[in-house]
Amino acid sequence: MKLNINNISHSYDVEVLHDLKFNLEGYKSIAIIGVSGSGKSTLIRLMSGMEKPTFGNIDINEMNVSSEEYRKKIGFVFQNHNLFPHLSLKRNITLILEKTRNKTKEEAETIALSKLKLLHLSDQVNKLPKNVSGGQAQRASIARALSVDPDIIFLDEPTASLDPILTHEVLTAVEELKGLGKEFIFVTHVLSFVRDFADYVIYMHEGRIHEYGLPSILDSPKTKELKEFMRKVR
After folding, report:
1. 18-46, pLDDT tens digit by residue?
2. Residue 194: CB partners within 8 Å, gap ≥ 6?
3. Which of 86, 109, 122, 161 lies 20 to 30 Å from 15 when distance is taken between CA atoms?
């Protein structure tokens, strides 16, 4: 992955990201960590093109993230599964494929069933989201993100609303995707998953990138902010 963050600032009622500059190349799975309110979810939304920054721009793999070309190459998994509640797991996927990728019903169904099978959901395809577990619904959301054959998959705290058992279920499913050749950018509070899945870590604090590097930075932090963060989350 080639990542260029160029003078990014972003505001809602107040400024939440402060003039970020960051360049990175050669990594396939990037974790963004930090305490709540540090700006990590805002940054991942800007990186995915879901929101436009107040100032600056972001290029990933030599495409501006606001371009239509880029948006067709990504999949996004939200904190809560964000499935359409009145549609089955299968229809949640086929609808997206038919409406945004111009797939026929037959093509969409074939893709949906294959991705749901990949996420171990073959026996749940016709159920509504309310009739499956939270972990199964989140895995269906991952299957939906995969169905558009993205180059990059974004995951924004995919286990934030799950208990430890369901968290393990979802993160195990994500780890099984490593062999698909996709790139990942993800926000999580589960540091064991960062150690297992990430090959690069960005630590954020108060809207700024304070430390970054290989996952080994979690064991030997250099900044006082990351040292304090690790002391609290161990």
Report:
1. 999 999 999 999 999 999 999 999 999 99
2. 31, 33, 188, 201, 215, 218
3. 161
